[in-house]
Specification:
Length: 125
């Protein structure tokens, strides 16, 4: 059990650091009120978890430790619902109702589509 906790923790650490670096780069590239950094990270994370679950279903990722490292650890640390919620609250507080609606709606829709797409990609490969 301790080994699995360590494996998940390492994945989470790497996911969190990756999230910070990629999100910062994306947000600095697209200077705007819209939170492009977190949006990009969450959609990419949904796609990755779709890929990982697709690999798992196909049997290519049958090792439980790798599956937990990649899904619970890395993707859990990489994506961020708390930042998503905070940024939505900030948009509402600032009266940016259009961006709030766009960010929330696209995040949910594209997140589900990316998860489905990642899973479907593995199935056709």
């Amino acid at each position: 059990m301790i080994r699995l906790v360590f494996i998940i923790g390492m994945g989470s650490f790497l996911g969190g650091v990756s999230r910070f670096l990629i999100s910062r780069y994306v947000q600095n590239t697209f200077i705007a009120a819209f939170p492009f950094g977190t949006f990009f990270i969450n959609i990419l994370g949904c796609f990755l978890i779709g890929l990982f679950f697709g690999l798992s279903e196909r049997g290519s990722l049958s090792n439980v430790e790798w599956r937990l490292f990649l899904t619970v650890g890395f993707c859990g640390g990489f994506t961020t619902f708390s930042t998503f919620s905070f940024e939505n609250m900030a948009l509402l507080r600032d009266g940016s109702f259009f961006y709030f609606t766009l960010y929330s709606g696209l995040s949910v829709f594209l997140g589900l589509a990316a998860t489905f797409g990642g899973n479907a990609l593995i199935k056709i490969l």
